[in-house]
Amino acid sequence: MANLMTRISRPVALAGGAAAAGLLMALTAAPPAVAATATTTPPECVQYYSSWRYTDVHNGCDVTVAVTVEYTDGQAAPCRVIEPGAWATFAGYGTQANYVTGLRTCEPATASGA
Q1: Residue 7 domain boundaries
Q2: How far is the C-alpha of 62 from the C-alpha of 88, rounded, in Å?
Q3: Residue 62 shares a structural domain with residue 77
Q4: Are both 9 and 50 inside the same structural domain?
């Protein structure tokens, strides 16, 4: 066993140790999306229409909803309270093709007006 240890070069051993440490840190760190995902999908009567410049959200429900938009790159979007029959406008996907992946409900206490 001692002969096996002496056959591993120092750079290889250091790289392996660094890789193991990085893996351990990655496994123990909570991803940011998990911490912020204490929300649910809004009812089907809430629809979005996305273009390169704007994403319009329509509340076709009979109740007020608070929603936010999720993007492919994790871009932050405000939480907006939308009255029944009303619309709210969010950022679109822009020239970098940052597409909308869906809507999520959010806490009305942290929401800004539509």
Answers
A1: 2-32
A2: 16
A3: yes
A4: no
> Do both 56 and 70 map to the same domain?
yes
| Cα gap 85→45, rounded to integer Å | 10
Domain tally for the chain?
Answer: 2
| pLDDT band at residue 70 under the 50/70/90 scheme | very high
pLDDT tens digits, residue range 7-60?
Answer: 545 554 444 545 544 444 444 443 333 333 446 899 999 999 988 889 999 999
**In 3D, which of 55, 105, 49, 102 has the Cα closest to residue 82?**
105
Residue that wins the pLDDT comparison between 19 and 74: 74
Give residue 100's identity as a one-letter amino acid code: V
Q: What is the dihedral of CA 65, 51, 36, 58, to 10 degrees?
A: 0
